[in-house]
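Note to self: keep these together.
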Amino acid sequence: ATQAALSDARETILSLRTDIEIARANGAEEARKLREANGRLQAEVADMGTRMAVATTEADRARQQVRDYRGRFEHEITEHARDVGMLRDAEQQLDEHRTKVLELQSQLHAVRGEQRDAAVARTADDSGAETQVAEAEARATELAAQVEAMKRDLA
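Structure:
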């Protein structure tokens, strides 16, 4: 019975040693797989770190571009508003000048009308004066003839 128990114990020990060897082999295989998985994960983490650094750099660059674009846009808006103000002022000055030109044209037209009227009146006066001079000369000639006739009659 002890022999049988010893034999059973030896079989159990051999079976346990086989199980231990199998477990060690399985553990080693599992450890190898875990090391490979760990290596892949570490590589992925490193790759993600690199990609994250690149993405952070690109995000910073994009943020700076947005600030630059916003600054340029705000500058252009300010310039546009200034230009619109200057245009409005120029249009107002143009309107004022147009009004002044119209006033001056109206005054010029009135002065030309007065000149025309004065020229017509002067021409009429000149014609009237010429007529009066001609009449006076004719009368003087007539009177001179009468004086000569009287002198002859008296002589």
